[in-house]
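Sequence only, no structure available. Ideas?
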Amino acid sequence: MNKAFWLGFAAYLLPTFPLGYVWHLRTFASLYERLEMYRQDVIIPFGLAAMVIQGLLFSWLYPKLFSTARQDYLASALGFALVFGLLAFSFAVLPVAAKYRMTSVRDFIVLETAFTILQFAIVAPLMSLAHRQAG
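Reply:
I predicted one. Tokens follow.
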């Protein structure tokens, strides 16, 4: 594991955890409460553990799937956002909407889709920057 790997891991975890916390448990907490789908006592360490696993995997996969050449920074960031943003959407939005009881599937999909777009709009350029080759 080299410096770029750990920088990529940090590029994922450091913005994702506070963003997820503020989005779900502060800014839109009342909207999620109205959906009646979250437990009263959210287990934050489970969410953090999921993000650690995601950050490790995404940072490990990044240089295997995307160019790390300096001139490809933007294209690689967009590719990462599309690939992993869609993957996150397919894991965290659609199946949850399909399986869990909630007062409004539509509202949940809108909230979580907006979160996923914002998350990857922030994380993708940081991940690309972390893995960009020097020189």
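The mean pLDDT is 95.
Hope that gets you unstuck.
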